[in-house]
Each structure stands twice: as C-alpha cells, then as structure tokens.
Amino acid sequence: MIRDITLGQYYPGNSVIHSLDARVKIVSTVLFIVELFVVNSFIGFGFCAAAVALVVAVSRVPISYILRGLKPIFLILAFTFLLNLFMVDGRVIMHIWIFKVTEEGLYVALFMAIRLVLLIISSSLLTLTTKPIALTDGLEKLMSPLQKVGVPTHDIAMMISIALRFIPTLLDEADKIMKAQQARGADFESGNIIQRAKSLIPILIPLFVSAFRIAQDLAMAMEARCYRGGDGRTRLHPMQFRQRDLAAGIGIAVFFAWILVLRIFF
Question: In whole angstroms, how far apart are CA 205 and each of 159, 182, 195, 231, 237?
Fold first, then answer.
C-alpha cells in the first residue's frame, strides 16, 4: 500500500501538460481545488470530472497509475462516506441495525466522496507532470511579490519542493523497514484496524531516524556544492511563458467562470 502513494512522484513524459509552465499548472491546480469547493451540484462535479479526464488523457499518464494513488486513502474515503451517510438527518430511506440511512445523508456522502477523489487526483497530476526543480522555480516566481515585504520566498519554495520530492524516498524507506521487520516475524496484515494501526508504531522510530539522516546528507551535499539560494542565483533552464501557456491559462479561467455560472444559476 505504501508504494501506491503517487503524491510527490514525477512521471516522465513529453506531453503538452508536461511542457506547460510550472506557474500555469500551479495556479490551475489551485483554481481547480477552489472550484471543487464552489461546486454545489452533481452537474458541476460532472464537468470537473470531465476536465480531469481530459487532462489525464492529454498528459498520457496511465489512468491505472493515477487510480493507484487512491488506494492509500480508501479508509479515509470509506470513513467520510459512512460518517455522512449515517449522521445526516433527513428523510429515512433505509434502516441498518441501529443506524438510519437518509436521502440527505446519501447525497452528502456521495458529494464529499467525489470531491475528495477529484481533489487527490488533481493534486497528484501537478506533481506527476512537473519536475521538482520546475515546481520550485514556479512557486518562487509566483511568490516573488512577497519579497518586497521581507518574505524569504526562495527558502519557502525550496522547502515545499524538497518536502514533495522526498515523499517517494521516505515511502521507499518505510517499505524497506516493513519488509525487514516482516522478515523478523512482524505481522502487519492480521487483526482489526486498531491492531493493524498499532503494529505500525514500531516503524515510526526508524523512519524518523532515517528521515533525519537523509536531511543531514542533503544539507551536507548542498553545502559541499556551495549552494546559495535567493538573490543572484542563476538557472540552467530559465522559465519562459509561451503561447501554449497563455492558451492553458485562458482555458482554466473560462472553466472557472463556467463553474461559477453553474453555482449561481443552477
């Protein structure tokens, strides 16, 4: 299950989505997340799902690879769905033991589940189609106006990028630790949810130690290469805003306006 997490991983490709300016993709992802919370009908979610499907098709990232990233959050999805299903009052349509399923609860449960799935997929698409260094440069450029008030935008962008970049590394490390403990007789699969969660506690200490070791190695490597960020730093590949980026920006703006229209009039 650990290897199924796709957030923070980069999927190499030469599609139009991969070649877009990182700034456009970051802004588009933020706007799309806002849209998911603006939408108040299944019609709106249908348009959002169609937009995500179009981006996935154009990016040429295998749909199976993207859907694999939903496995780790299955328990969260199930818990959210059941919580809304049984806890929302309204017209009762079914009795399950001591619980009542209402029409309003079913509506809210489906609504929240679809929103969470689209949120995870859209966030994953950003990292799957954007290299970590491009993501850092894009974040720094977008936050550059904050430099006028003394905000260390480069440091913030670098920390965010490193955090995303090392998600797959830490997941691989956790997988190695789990396999090593399983070889010594540890059992992570049997028992109920609470027992399985408790069995994962012994993994946390060696994982924290490994995370600090990786951070120290990274800091030493950056110092050995005389890395200095911020003012005066040059880039091997300067960011350029091209016609395709403008077209993509206009497209997401039009889509955002359409979602607002759906919210107001439908």
Answer: 23, 16, 18, 38, 39
E strands along 56-128, which residues? 92-96, 99-102
Cα angle at 221 between 216 and 222, to 5 degrees? 100
How many beta carbons lie within 10 A of that of residue 170, not counting itself?
Answer: 17
1-52 pLDDT, tens digit per residue, is 555 566 667 888 889 999 899 999 999 999 999 989 988 888 889 999 999 9
Cα(172)–Cα(166) distance, rounded to whole angstroms? 10
C-alpha closest to that of 39 among 122, 115, 109, 103: 115
Report yes or no on whether pTM surpasses 0.85.
no
Cα–Cα distance, 8 to 124 (Å, whole number): 7
- Taking the alpha carbons at both ends of the chain, their separation in whole angstroms is 40
Collapse the DSSP code of 119 into the 3-class scheme (helix H, G, I; strand E, B; otherwise coil) and give the result: helix
CB of 136 closer than 8 Å to CB of 161: yes
DSSP state of 230: S
CB-facing half-sphere around the CA of 214: CA atoms within 13 A: 17
